[in-house]
Request: fold
Amino acid sequence: MTDPRGPRFGAVLTTIVLVAVLLTGSGRLVLAQAAVFAVTAAWPRLGPYGLLYRVLLAPRLAPPTELEPLAPVRFAQLVGLVFALVSAAGYLSGAAVVGAIAAGFALVAAFLNGAFGLCLGCELFLAYRRLTGRPLAARVPIA
Reply:
């Protein structure tokens, strides 16, 4: 279980990085973002943005009122990784349009999560679980 504010903070930072990617067309920058997605998906407690949240922000905030499962967040990071890798491949191979489109899709998803708390990757994971008959609680209140 995780504090939902951590992934949302990470989405804000991802939004900033992806805006910079679109403004500069930097394949290396989106590749760095792909590394963040990969680390966070594989080892959520070691994800760079999550570490920043836990060290810099969480101590200054009230404890969370609810926790959310980690599996949907990890899946969302994998989806972000795929889009970032496609974007990096596009930019680094000279297919800037492909890079920009993939970065744009990732940017929309990150912005929706950061600004409104709507995690598209998480929702996709939960929909898959419901379709396969394996529902997962979305949030758990803290007593």
About this structure: Residues 5-141 form one domain. DSSP finds six helices and two strands in the chain.
